[in-house]
């Protein structure tokens, strides 16, 4: 998700009281806010590569306010941002303050991030937001405090306008995970490019290109930061898109086609799955022979009893997708907006006029008849990209999670039959469950015994990769002990 906005409207995502304790605390807040923002910016450098893990960034600052070290999580399963930052800071970590955009999880199950800060001699930790996942919320903060480290959480220990803005930047960089923690659908962004007269194609359907090359590179970045890109059948028939991220870095998202009729061309760029997979979601029973053809090309087909945007998004949520980029036409966009599955809109407006009463527009019929019914975006940002104007904003605010979670004792008080730390039952149906890395859908690598020798191991990219290969001898999983962060 690209977040380098230049001109932003002043309305905050989440409103909180502003409290000022005089000039000293204001300076103190300004410094904390600046370093937290830096940690958030750092964390975003690997957007798209860390999923389903959050984006983590860490800045180590000395008591004189100098940056001693920085780090961010490069990809899921790599060294935590905190460990990288204290390594970079070396001896300057002793007595320093660590700024984290988000409370760390415990990816390796061994509190690597917390241990790195403790062992480096960090005196104070400032946290932008608590971890959004219930089973991880507060545990790293408790652990740090138990080692005598002062931990301040923005919005809990102190509040001010600058700190609130910094906190907001932390919410933005991990918006998909925060949504996952509180809703049953992935974070969805509707992106489109339109002419100044509001058309996404000429009346002939021709659309290449409306926006500039620079804008289209920004779209590649948006794709690179998303888990999947979704279009409708009409876009496949009309544009034959590739939907790949071609800006030279980052990952390429899964392509999803949503089609009721399955009336699609036999040859299409999206059926080439040599580099990235395509999933076609359709109505149960639609064109069985075409389903077979797609399957023979390696395209996965998923049938739905009720094909609609909400059902489809709930399905992809269960499969562990955090963020979806909608690059569809107006009909599907309207249906997705009506189903309340779109959270953010990103529109590239090109200074061109194409005209045409039949030329399509980005959003079809929403059933509104009066301007007072129009959906107002919040937190609107404007940015010039080459000759185009990029306008973005939220249709739904990023949910603000309650800062305090029930302690272990309080949980037992609420429901004594629940043992939140029951060790013999582990859940991993969803990738974000406590042991979600065991899920077929989790991209965690696993190590398994291989061959006759006891110390022979082979690494598989995920549990699913392992199961896809026929095995002659029963194997025992030995190394997938890390938990979902
Ligand atoms: N025409 C148009 C866009 N069109 C979108 O991009 C898709 C084509 O992607 P690809 O085949 O990967 O290049 C197309 O199907 C439609 O969803 N996007 C833009 O940013 N600007 C443009 O002017």
Lay out the secondary structure.
Layout: E1 7-8, H1 23-43, E2 57-61, E3 67-72, H2 81-89, E4 97-102, H3 112-120, E5 124-129, H4 139-146, E6 150-153, H5 161-173, H6 175-182, E7 187-195, H7 213-224, E8 228-232, H8 233-239, E9 254-259, E10 278-283, H9 288-296, E11 300-304, H10 309-318, E12 323-326, H11 330-338, E13 344-350, E14 378-385, E15 388-394, H12 408-414, E16 446-449, E17 457-460, H13 463-468
Parallel strand pairs: 4-5, 5-6, 7-12, 7-13, 8-9, 8-12, 9-10, 10-11
Antiparallel strand pairs: 1-14, 2-3, 2-4, 13-15, 14-15, 16-17
Bound molecules: the ligand Nc1c(N[C@@H]2O[C@H](COP(=O)(O)O)[C@@H](O)[C@H]2O)[nH]c(=O)[nH]c1=O.
Q: Identify low-pLDDT runs.
A: 1-22, 404-423, 473-485
Q: Approximately how much helix is present in the residues?
A: 25-40%
The total of beta strands comes to: 17
Task: Name the helix and strand elements from N-terminus to C-terminus, one letter apiece.
Answer: EHEEHEHEHEHHEHEHEEHEHEHEEEHEEH
What is the radius of gyration? 24 Å
In DSSP terms (H or I, runs of 4 or more residues), the helix count works out at 13
**Largest sheet, spatial ordering of strands:** 1-14-15-13-7-12-8-9-10-11
- How far apart are the first and last residues' alpha carbons, in Å? 20 Å
| Gross morphology | globular
Structural class: alpha/beta
- Residue share in β-strands: 15-25%
Question: Could you report the average pLDDT, rounded to the nearest whole number?
Answer: 84
């Amino acid at each position: 998700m690209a977040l380098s906005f230049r001109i932003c409207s002043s309305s905050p995502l989440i409103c909180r009281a502003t409290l000022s304790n005089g000039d000293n605390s204001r300076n103190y807040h300004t410094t904390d806010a600046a370093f937290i923002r830096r940690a958030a910016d750092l964390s975003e450098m690997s957007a798209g590569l860390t999923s389903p893990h959050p984006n983590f960034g860490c800045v180590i600052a000395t008591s004189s306010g100098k940056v001693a070290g920085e780090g961010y999580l490069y990809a899921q399963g790599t060294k935590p941002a905190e460990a990288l930052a204290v390594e970079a800071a070396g001896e300057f970590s002793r007595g320093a303050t660590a700024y984290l955009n988000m409370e760390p999880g415990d990816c390796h199950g061994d509190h690597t991030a917390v241990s790195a800060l403790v062992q480096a001699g960090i005196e104070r930790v400032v946290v932008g937001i608590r971890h959004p996942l219930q089973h991880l919320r507060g545990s790293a903060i408790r652990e740090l405090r138990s080692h005598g480290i002062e931990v301040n959480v923005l919005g809990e220990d102190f509040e001010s306008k600058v700190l609130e803005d910094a906190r907001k930047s932390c919410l933005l960089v991990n918006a998909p995970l925060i949504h996952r923690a509180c809703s049953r659908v992935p974070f969805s962004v509707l992106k489109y490019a339109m002419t100044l007269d509001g058309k996404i194609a000429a009346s002939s359907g021709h659309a290449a290109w409306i926006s500039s090359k620079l804008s289209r590179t920004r779209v590649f970045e948006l794709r690179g930061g998303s888990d999947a890109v979704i279009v409708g059948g009409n876009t496949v028939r009309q544009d034959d898109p590739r939907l790949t991220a071609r800006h030279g870095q980052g990952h390429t998202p899964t392509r999803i086609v949503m089609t009721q009729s399955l009336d699609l061309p036999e040859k299409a760029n999206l059926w080439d799955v040599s580099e990235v997979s395509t999933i076609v979601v359709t109505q149960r029973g639609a064109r069985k022979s075409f389903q077979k053809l797609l399957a023979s090309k390696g395209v996965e087909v998923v049938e739905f009893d009720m094909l609609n945007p909400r059902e489809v998004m709930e399905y992809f949520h269960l499969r562990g997708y955090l963020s979806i980029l909608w690059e569809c036409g107006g009909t599907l966009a309207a249906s997705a907006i009506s189903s309340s599955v779109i959270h953010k809109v990103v529109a590239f407006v090109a200074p061109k006029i194409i005209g045409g009463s039949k030329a399509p527009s980005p959003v079809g019929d929403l059933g509104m008849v009066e301007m007072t019914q129009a959906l107002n975006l919040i937190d609107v940002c404007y940015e010039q990209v080459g000759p185009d104007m990029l306008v973005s904003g939220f249709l739904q605010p990023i949910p603000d999670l309650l800062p305090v979670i029930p302690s272990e004792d309080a949980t037992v008080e609420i429901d004594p039959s629940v043992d939140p730390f029951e060790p013999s039952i582990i859940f991993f149906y969803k990738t974000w469950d406590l042991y979600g890395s065991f899920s077929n859908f989790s991209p965690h690598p696993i190590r398994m015994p291989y061959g006759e020798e006891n110390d022979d191991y082979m690494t598989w990219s995920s549990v699913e990769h392992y199961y896809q290969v026929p095995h002659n001898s029963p194997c025992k999983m030995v190394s997938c002990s890390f938990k979902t962060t």
